[in-house]
Amino acid sequence: MRVLLMAYGSRGDIEPMAGLAVRLRALGAEVRVCAPPDFAELLNGFGLPLVPLGPSVREMTTGAVTGAKPMPPQSMPQRAARVFASTYDSVAAVAEGFDAVVATGLIPAAAAARAVAEKLGLPYVFVSYFPTYLPSPHHPPLVWTRPHPADVTDNRALWDLNAEQMNELFREGINTHRASVGLPPVDDVRGHVFTDRPWLAADPTLGPWQEPADLDVVQTGAWIRPDDRPLPAELEAFLEAGAPPVYVGFGSMPVRDAEAVARAAVEAVRAQGRRVLLSRGWADLAVTGDQADCFAVGEVNQQALFGRVAAVVHHGGAGTTTTAARAGAPQVVVPQMADQPYWAGRVAELGIGAAHDGPTLTAESLSAALSTALTPATRARAATVAAEIRTDGATVAARLLLDTAGRQRPPA
Q1: Where are the beta strands (DSSP E) in 112-253?
Q2: What are the mean pLDDT values of the chain's consecutive 10-residue runs (412 residues total)?
Q3: CATH 3.40.50.2000 matches 233-386
């Protein structure tokens, strides 16, 4: 069995695919991953061949956030058409002989992956890593390029507007390229990409799917990549030198004025009487000067680290939220975009941490949030929830995928 995985996005889109890939290989499947070139080193570390998609996502997002490299002067439909075309070409070049395609990330890229699957007659699965990406009467859609109308509050009506907006942004570019490869046009872009039976790779405790709903959503649990790397010796020495520090990191989220953010974070953590562990990440957070109570770390095994910190301050990506929850570490989520406000809300609702009010932190605002996260009651609640987090999501998904592809494979 050969499975092609496509993820066009930040590290939070790629890590779960790596988790699924590892489990698929353990079950005897051959796996190929299509992803941005930023993640070649990550995937090569697991022996996963990478098919690079497009330019560096880190360069694009960092430039857009900091203003150092503005997006080219193209409309959203033009950019969508370009993403579809380049993704289709990259995926189609390697998809021959595969048995199934799994896709996530940007809508035009996922549409391209589905087009390749259609062309080759392969099963196609779309996966979301958080519930609110998928249409439901129980929650509104994400805000895209324009805010929801103030006079529309019904969730179904908002999802109808969401479908219209996706068609406006993506349909023309997608259909133009589909016609060029001999495929019929699609009327409903969102329904086409998501399908009637999307998968939800989120933990049922952290991100439950509510029923009844219009879609037949398959919730597998989160796809967690096994990680047994030891912590660096310098980090071990810092951890052993005092009380557990507060971890602060924003993963693959760049931030504007990273120096000010790092300075505010250090001040806030110190105000709570704690040491500081900064994760550089795509924000390039750094310790300034010689500060014995602060340490900066690069790429590190968060699964090994988070059980040894007092709290985790982060952007609210699905992977970081799940890893911190599994470790029983109290959290402060400073949401920047996309699914991150959802995870901030869930952390607060579950009582395992605090949701920071908005994406811009100050020393005062972060200190206030930490005062909630660092209480004994929050840590006790985090430990209780940790015991409920499932660890078999990638295995469930891998077995289901192999079973589905095996049943739909044409006879030899």
Answers
A1: 124-128, 199-200, 218-219, 246-248
A2: 94 93 96 94 87 84 59 72 94 96 96 97 97 96 83 95 95 95 97 98 98 96 94 97 96 85 95 96 83 93 97 96 98 93 97 95 96 98 97 97 78 52
A3: yes
